[in-house]
Each structure stands twice: as structure tokens, then as C-alpha cells.
């Protein structure tokens, strides 16, 4: 039967060895936590399984609102994350963005913070865009070359973006993707993954970690029946870290991006949690993924 996450009943989610994350060599994961169908205003906490639950929350769901929040969570020694909903009932979904490796893990990339640089803002026409909204089921792409010396060789492996949506005239989501000329976006085929879920008239933002995969542009798709304004800043990058003479990374904490994969959704995994009833969730691995998918 379908069940929701109920108040103060923690669940454990296995992440090591799932969704493109290796079975070892990982210290933390970066995920998009999607909260939906909240029965009341509440909060969600996330932490390394087997450790003490923190007092601080990572998301603040509310009724009639779907929200996406990118968070970084340490992994427990049992390879799991713990989540708990504070009040009412709630559904969650989790998209894996990448992970941080320890000294025995994959090489990955090192984070470099930047002074925020505006990539574009549809409200005032910054960048290549005149002041205008993004229409329903439409996409817009922006080049990163001018922000990184004008050549593709200077581009980082991964960009970290602060993405905001304002003035939405209908509920929906803003998706991020790498443009494929062979598979252009259509009104019935939304590309990419949702990185901001928004509601009519409510400004919403999220931090987005995006692996370029050799692309020189970042594209956004307005998966909505209305119109939205979008503001994007570049706030950081991930670059190749220092290695020793044998090519071995000399520090831990290296980020390894993977193809974003939804590894858990309570609605499709036995439903939400019934109060006072413990449950163990099994997360199926993504077919063909035994290691990070982005070199």
C-alpha cells in the first residue's frame, strides 16, 4: 500500500553502490532533494546514517508546493543516509548529482569558489537576452565561453550555479540540460532534470551543480504552462585537482559528478512511512552503472 513519510519516523536510504555511486571510496554525496505532497508546513532533516540526527533542517516543504533543494550529506559507515520529516505526511524523491571521494576513491575534481558572476537575467536583459520571460515549454541556452577566457579549453569540468525563478504565471519546474541537436526539446518531451520547482507568483531559487561534459553552453527548459523570469549566477567551478608524480590525487574531498539519477521515490517504493512502523528501502542500481559516468 502507498504510505507517506510521517512525523519524526526516520528512514534510511542505501546510497553506496547505487545510482552510479561506487561501493567504496566515497565520503559524501550531493543530491537534489525533491519534496512534494506535504500535508502541512514542515521541515526535513538529513544526516549520515548511524550518527545523531542534526537539529538543523535541509528543506522546508509546504502544502501544494513541490520544492527542489540541493544538499550535500555525509555517508554513514553503513553506506546509508537518514531522512526524517518533522510534521504531517510527505513524499520525497532524490536525484543524485555527484559525490565527494576520499583518498581511495576516484580522482574527481576540486572545488574553486568564484565571486558570483551573472550569466543572464531575463528581467533586465543581462547577457544575450533582451528583457523577456521564458514562455511555456520553451528553452533558452547561454554560452559559458565569455565567462572563462573565450576558449573551450579554459572551461571547467563542472559549474556551480545559483538559479532563481521569479514572476511565474503558473506552477512548474525549470530544467537544466545539455543541448542535443538530434533530440531538441518539445512541448511533450521535457529535457534534463528539474532544478527549481516553482509556484505562481512565488520567487524560488536553488543551488545547481552541473557537469558540462564537454559542452560550452548551459540550457534551461521552462516546464510550465505559463511564463517565468530566470536569473543565473556562476558561483563556483570544479577543476582537476593537484596530483603527485604518478598521477595520484594528493588530497581527499574530490568531487566526482555522475549522470543525475533518481535513486529513490517513496511513491514508487512502497509509498510513504506509516507512523510507528519501521521500513527498509531497497534502491535498485541504475542499469550499466558501476562507476562515475562522467570522466
Key features of this structure:
mainly beta; 295 residues; globular
Molecular structure report:
With 295 residues, the chain is mostly beta strands. The chain is 0% helix and 43% strand. It is globular.
A few lines on this structure:
The chain has 295 residues and is mostly beta strands.
Task: Compile the SSE list and pairings.
Blueprint: E1 5-6, E2 11-14, E3 26-36, E4 44-48, E5 67-74, E6 80-85, E7 89-101, E8 110-121, E9 139-143, E10 158-166, E11 172-177, E12 193-198, E13 204-211, E14 217-224, E15 229-239, E16 254-265
Antiparallel strand pairs: 1-7, 2-6, 3-5, 3-7, 4-6, 7-16, 8-15, 9-14, 10-13, 10-15, 11-12, 11-14
Low-confidence stretches: 286-295
Rg, rounded, reads 19 Å
Helix/strand-derived category reads mainly beta
Number of helices: 0
Report the portion of residues in β strands: 35-45%
Order of secondary-structure elements? EEEEEEEEEEEEEEEE
Biggest β-sheet description: 5 strands, antiparallel
What's the number of extended β-strand segments? 16
Q: In which range does the helix fraction lie?
A: under 10%
In whole angstroms, the N-to-C terminal distance is: 41 Å
Shape: globular
- Can you give the mean pLDDT? 83
